[in-house]
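Table S2 (text version). Query chain:
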Amino acid sequence: MNTAGSKWLSQTNSTVSLLNQTIENHQSFFILTGIPGMPEKYLWMALPLCLLYSTIILGNVTILVVIKVEQSLHEPMYYFLAMLAATDLSLSLSSMPTMVSVHWFSWCSITFNVCLIQMFFIHTFGGVESGVLVAMAFDRFVAIHFPLRYATILTYSVISKIAAAVLLRSAVTVLPVPFLTKRLRFCHSNVLPHAYCLHQDAMRLACADTSVNSIYGLLAVIFIIVLDALILLASYILILQAALGIASQEERLKGLNTCLSPICAVMLFYVALIGMTLIHRYGKHLSPIIHTFMANIYLLLPLVLNPIVYSVRTKQIRWRIVQAFCGARVSP
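Corresponding structure-token output:
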């Protein structure tokens, strides 16, 4: 009896030890997902993915260099454009390592701590992007409402403070997210639905109570995304009213024309965000490939198109790019 009891106790301890080890292992790494059900086609996904990231990096670096070199672009509007380019560049670099490693090398494993770090940077720069769009709308509001005081209101010091406030707001708001995720226990699946780490994806894998994570995530979205959307809507309504009140038709069109590029950036950001949200909320019956496709569009499409839009619509940037390829043969 004692021997049987000892054996049962030994087997029980082994089972508990194995279960604890399994839980610890599930907490120590996650498995990232590329294209669901099509691992043999990762290479076909990797080629356009590398093209997209190359376009993002080249386009945004070009805008940053042109704004630094071209003296005529040393104005508040273009400083905010430089902030947008730097944010797009940072956001792309946050997701690029895992996206490329999954689709090109089929390296799908990521450690838990690295996942938390990537999660922090992706959510932080996503919030910064929203804040920069609000800053660009404020810039156009001041330019159209107070054209004579534009340079005195938006000084270099004010612009620097706005940039610091946008970055600090997003970083402080997102900072608790990795710590809230780290306290969770993962004892079921450790497979994430995308090739990068997001808070909502990791939270769904937990077998503990995630109500605190859900509530804080909702409050963070309201504080950053929803609040910024309301401010943007109000800002562009006021800008439109002010522009329509300008007596000269030429000046009216000129003022509205300077708003087209920021409006395009806002539309790219929020249309991609709303599309992904609707697919996630109401498209549960759809193929996982569609969910992956929409998530990648949300993450990459605005970053690819923003530098293209500004390069096409900004004469000085467009001329500098053409001059870089054609040399002195092209005059402004």
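Notes on Table S2: The first helix runs from residue 2 to 28. The two ends are 97 Å apart (CA to CA).
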